[in-house]
Write a structure and sequence with these properties.
By secondary structure, this protein is mostly helical. The protein has six helices and two strands, in the order H-H-H-H-E-E-H-H. It has one domain: Arc Repressor Mutant, subunit A.
Length: 157
């Protein structure tokens, strides 16, 4: 369902100056478009993210992937189960440690990941077409700083 633009005569008050407001609207625009772009490949945004992590860290454990992904182990197991059922990743026994599995891309998973990365790059280029390459890098750098900051508001005396 498409969002209805606000009437121009409607005052937004302080909203345009609030980080949360701007991030929320940018998120809706970018995430919605991203999901539409990858949907024909029958992959969700979370599955894409995990494919990227596995491709960048072949042989990583489920626990390591969960930590990098910022999710709990049980959610990671379900996500890997879905990718494994789709033939995109394999669990392999780790040499010297039978308690954990190494997660690797299958040939099919590696091929799909390359296709998805091209699709995502093209989408992001279109989404940031209103910015110069330098502005895009600045935006990403600033968002990385915001995301790296400790969670929650700090107490100010």
């Amino acid at each position: 369902m498409a969002r209805q633009p606000m009437k121009q005569d409607t005052s937004l008050g302080i909203l345009p100056g609030l980080l949360g407001y701007q991030l929320r609207h940018a998120n809706l625009k970018v995430v919605g478009g991203f999901a539409e772009r990858i949907a024909p490949h029958k992959v969700t945004a979370a599955q894409f993210g995990l494919l990227v992590l596995v491709g960048a860290n072949p042989g990583a454990t489920q626990a390591a992937l969960a930590g990098a992904f910022g999710t709990d182990r049980s959610a990671m197991v379900r996500l890997i189960d879905r990718l494994e059922a789709a033939g995109l990743v394999d669990r392999r026994a780790r040499a010297g440690d039978r308690r954990s599995n190494a997660i690797v891309l299958t040939r099919r998973g590696a091929k799909l990941l390359e296709t998805l990365k091209r699709e995502v790059r093209a989408f992001e280029d279109a989404a940031t077409a209103c910015l110069t390459p330098e502005e895009t890098e600045t935006l990403l750098a600033l968002l990385r700083r915001v995301n790296a900051a400790p969670d929650g508001p700090s107490e100010r005396g």
